[in-house]
C-alpha cells in the first residue's frame, strides 16, 4: 500500500515541478527563473555546509556530556534532506527544503515522529577504570600454571615474531 503512494508521489512530483517552472517563468521570465533555480542550488550547498558543521558541534558536545544525541541526529538528517531538496531543481522541493531549515518546524516534526523511534543508550557508554591495587588474574580468577616442559615455542623463520635470528651470511 505504501509503495503505491510512493510511486504516485514520484510520478506527480516532476509534473508539479514542471508546472511550477511554467508558472514562475510566466511571472518573472525565463532568465530570472533559471537564476532562481541556480541560486537555490547554491544556497542549498551553503546551508548544508553551515548547518552541518553546527550539527556536528552539537553531536560532539552531547557526546562529551554523556547524553544520547537522538534528537540532534534527527535534526541533522532533516538538514541534509532540506539541503538536498534545495539542490534539486524545482520550486516545490525548494519550498519544502526551506521549511525544513526552520528549527521550530523540525522540532514539531520530531515531536510527532519521535514517539515511534527508540534510541537505546548503552550503560557502558561512559566507563571509568580505577586502580584498586589488586592484581588482575584473568577471567573469574582462574590461573593456569605451566611448567617449562608443558610449554615451549618452536622457531618459525618466516614469522616476524620469531625468537630465532636469521643471518644473511
TrEMBL record:
Region named Disordered: 135-169
KW Membrane (keyword) present: yes
InterPro entries named among the record's database cross-references: FxsA
Regions that span the bilayer: 28-48, 77-102
A Pfam family matched in the record: FxsA
Keyword field: Membrane, Transmembrane, Transmembrane helix
Acetylation in keyword set: no
PANTHER family reported for this sequence: UPF0716 PROTEIN FXSA (PTHR35335:SF1)
Protein name (database record): Membrane protein FxsA
Record organism: Pseudorhizobium endolithicum
Amino acid at each position: 500500500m505504501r509503495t503505491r503512494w510512493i510511486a504516485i508521489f514520484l510520478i506527480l512530483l516532476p509534473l508539479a515541478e514542471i508546472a511550477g517552472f511554467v508558472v514562475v517563468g510566466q511571472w518573472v521570465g525565463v532568465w530570472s527563473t533559471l537564476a532562481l533555480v541556480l541560486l537555490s542550488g547554491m544556497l542549498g550547498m551553503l546551508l548544508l555546509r553551515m548547518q552541518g558543521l553546527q550539527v556536528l558541534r552539537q553531536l560532539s558536545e552531547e557526546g562529551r556530556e554523556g547524553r544520547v544525541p537522538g534528537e540532534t541526529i534527527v535534526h541533522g538528517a532533516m538538514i541534509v534532506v532540506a539541503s538536498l531538496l534545495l539542490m534539486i531543481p524545482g520550486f516545490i522541493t525548494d519550498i519544502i527544503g526551506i521549511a525544513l531549515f526552520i528549527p521550530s518546524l523540525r522540532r514539531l516534526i520530531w515531536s510527532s515522529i519521535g514517539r515511534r523511534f527508540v534510541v537505546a543508550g548503552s550503560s557502558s557508554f561512559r566507563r571509568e577504570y580505577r586502580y584498586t591495587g589488586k592484581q588482575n588474574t584473568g577471567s573469574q580468577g582462574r590461573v593456569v600454571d605451566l611448567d617449562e616442559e608443558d610449554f615451549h615455542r618452536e622457531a618459525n623463520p618466516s614469522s616476524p615474531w620469531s625468537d630465532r635470528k636469521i643471518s644473511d651470511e
